[in-house]
Design brief:
By secondary structure, the chain is mainly alpha-helical. Helix content is 71%, strand content 0%. The protein has six helices and no strands. Helix 1 runs antiparallel to helix 6, helix 2 runs parallel beside helix 6 and helix 4 packs antiparallel against helix 5. The longest helix is centred in the N-terminal third of the chain and has 22 residues. The protein is globular, with a radius of gyration of 14 Å. The relative contact order is 0.20.
């Protein structure tokens, strides 16, 4: 029970952070989501598989590990190269991020 509970605890923490992000009004909400996804990916996969990825390679990683839609992936990528507020369907991005987190299990501390 201990190992399973600990693994699930990391996932629960990521989902709780997602809820906290949803409640805050960030200028660049997709960039905040991207940071959460990157940190959680580092808990789920070896650093050499995900840490240095950016741009299209990062989106391909998200898509190949739990499926992240092209539309929401594009929103995240656009947020990384723009400053200021970005129009985004927050609910759709939250839903996609939640689905990705739930499909990937943290295996590292």
């Amino acid at each position: 029970l201990g190992y399973w509970w600990k693994r699930k605890a990391m996932q629960r923490a990521a989902l709780a952070e997602l809820i906290a992000l949803e409640r805050n009004a960030f200028d660049n909400f997709p960039a905040e989501i991207n940071r959460l996804l990157k940190r959680y990916a580092l808990k789920c996969f070896p650093a050499e598989d995900s840490a240095a990825l950016s741009g299209k390679k990062w989106l391909e990683f998200l898509q190949s590990h739990g499926g992240f839609s092209d539309e929401q992936g594009k929103v995240i990528l656009d947020s990384l190269y723009r400053s200021g507020s970005i129009k985004v369907d927050r609910k759709a991005l939250i839903k996609e991020t939640k689905r990705w987190i739930k499909r990937n299990k943290a295996v590292r501390n």
